[in-house]
Amino acid sequence: MTNKDAVELIRNGIQKTEVPQRWADLGCGSGTFTEALATVLPYGSQILAVDRSRQSLKKTMGNAVSVEFLRADFEKTDLNYTNLDGILLANSLHYVQDKEGLIRRLEKYLSPDKRFLVVEYDTLNANSWVPYPIDYIRLKELFMELNYQAVVKLSERKSLFGQGNLYAAAID
Description:
The protein is of the alpha/beta class and 172 residues long. It has a single domain, classed as Vaccinia Virus protein VP39 (Rossmann fold), CATH 3.40.50.150. 20% of the residues lie in helices and 27% in strands. It is built from four helices and eight strands. The relative contact order is 0.17. It holds the Pfam family Methyltransf_31.
């Protein structure tokens, strides 16, 4: 996926403001969506990029956004952050079996205006690459049960890996 493709998926999930923001990208992998997030965040923002595997990410990306990499399992590690403006889970939620438990644990890192940005495959068919899939309907049900006010599908595109469509959703 190109940076342009990733940006198009998530662009409308970022608040339009000039004020720098602090985000976490959990399960950042090689940084495709970290870079996309850095492209759409305001100048001078910060991203904490977390992945279980060592990644070589640039320290500054996109719109002069600083990127700090942390090698950790976001399901098990206390990230010790507070007042994040948002958490991006791009192609990482499908590795989590207890999605409700994870969301409840992650909420403590967020500001009162908590926002999740999720990119996932719109399928319920599990396989070795997507062991615990969550389609858009189930994602919306999950967050509504957790008392979120809005779950909005931002965009979707055909998956390059034969998994149907990828969707992006913003959750407030």
